[in-house]
C-alpha cells in the first residue's frame, strides 16, 4: 500500500485517501485506476474485494466493486459511486489535482462522493469487526446507471449477500454537516415525442400536413395536467417541457416533423410506466401517428421513518450535536435501486459545491463524517 494513504500502518487517513481518489480521474462511466486505489486500501482491512466490468457502449463498459468483511448478521452495507461528472473549464487548480487551500480540499468528487467513500473506509478501519460489513461501489451513478448498481444488486443476490440495511453516502447535508438525511427520492422519467407531418410550401398548405399545431395542442394539454398534490413526505409531482425542436431554417416551408421532450419528476403516488402511457394517450388524441418513447430512470421510493433513520440520526446527534431533518428532496440516486432489496437512507457531506467548478470539502467535515460513520457501525 502506498504510505501516504495511511497513518500508523493500515489505518487509512481520510484526507489522504480522499486526495488519492480525487487524483484518479474517473469521469462517468469509470473504470480502472480509481478502483485500484480503493481496493489497495480495503484489502489490508480484511475486506474480500470483487471487481467486475459490465456492459458495452453507449452505456458501458462500467466497473463495479463489491467488498465484504466478516460473516453472519447483522449485515450493514455502505453504497456509493466513484464516477464523477465532467469537470468543465475554469478550475482554480486542476480538477483531478487535489489541492488543500486553507481548510478546504479541492477537486472533482470531493463531496460527490469520493470524500464520503474515504470516510466510510476510515470508519471501518476504526470499528472492530462484527457481523458483516460491505461496500457496494459503482462506476456509473452520474450516467445512465444501466450497468452500475443494478448489476451489483444482481451479484449481491447471487452471492447471498443481501444486507439488512444500507446507507448511501450521497452529499445530503444542506447548511451544516448532519442537518439532513434523505429517506426517499422522487422518481424520474423522460419522454420523447415526435409528430410526423408532410413537408410542403407555405403557400399551398392543402398539399402539406403541418405537425407543429398538433404538437403544440398536445403539449398544452400535458402542461395542464396536475398529477397530484403531494403527500406527507413528497412534494407534488411535476411535468416539465425541456426541449422543443422543429429545425426548420426556411421561411417558406411547412416542416415535416416536430419534436419535444418532457421530464417528469414524480412522487410515490405515481409509477413511471403508467406516466408514459398517460402521456402517450394525450399525444394520440392530437396526433394519432406520433412516436412516443419514454425511459424510466428510477421509481420513487420511501424508507418509512423507523429503525434505520433512528440509527443514523442518533449517531449524528451524539457525534455532531445536530438534529437531522428527514427529507425526500433533490434528484435521484442509486438508493432508488437499493431500496428494492433492503431499507436504505442517504447521508453524507455538504452538497453546496457538488457538480460545480472548484468543488471542495472542509477537512473538518471529512474527519467528522468519519466519526459519524464509525458511530453508525458501532450501533448496528
How would you describe this protein?
Helices cover 29% and strands 26% of the residues. By secondary structure, the protein is an alpha+beta fold. Helix 1 (14-23) runs antiparallel to helix 2. The longest helix is centred in the first third of the chain and has 17 residues, at 110-126. It is elongated. The mean pLDDT is 96.
SSE topology sketch:
Blueprint: E1 6-7, E2 11-12, H1 14-23, H2 33-42, E3 48-54, E4 62-70, E5 75-81, E6 99-101, E7 104-106, H3 110-126, E8 132-138, H4 149-158, E9 165-168, E10 180-182, E11 184-185, E12 187-196, E13 200-201, H5 211-223, E14 238-245, E15 253-254, E16 257-266, H6 272-286, E17 291-298, E18 301-302, H7 307-320, E19 325-327, H8 335-338, E20 344-346, E21 360-362, H9 363-379
Parallel strand pairs: 5-8, 5-9, 9-20, 10-19
Antiparallel strand pairs: 1-2, 3-4, 4-8, 6-7, 7-21, 11-18, 12-16, 12-17, 13-15, 14-16
Helix pairs in contact: 1-2, 1-3, 3-9, 5-6, 7-9
Number of helices: 9
Average of per-residue pLDDT values: 96
Query: Which of globular, elongated, flat, extended, rod-shaped describes the shape?
Result: elongated
> Taking strands numbered 1, 2, ... along the chain, how are they ordered across the largest sheet?
3-4-8-5-9-20
Helical coverage, percent range: 25-40%
- Beta strand %: 25-35%
Q: Helix- and strand-based class?
A: alpha+beta
Rg over CA atoms, rounded to whole Å, is 24 Å
Number of strands: 21
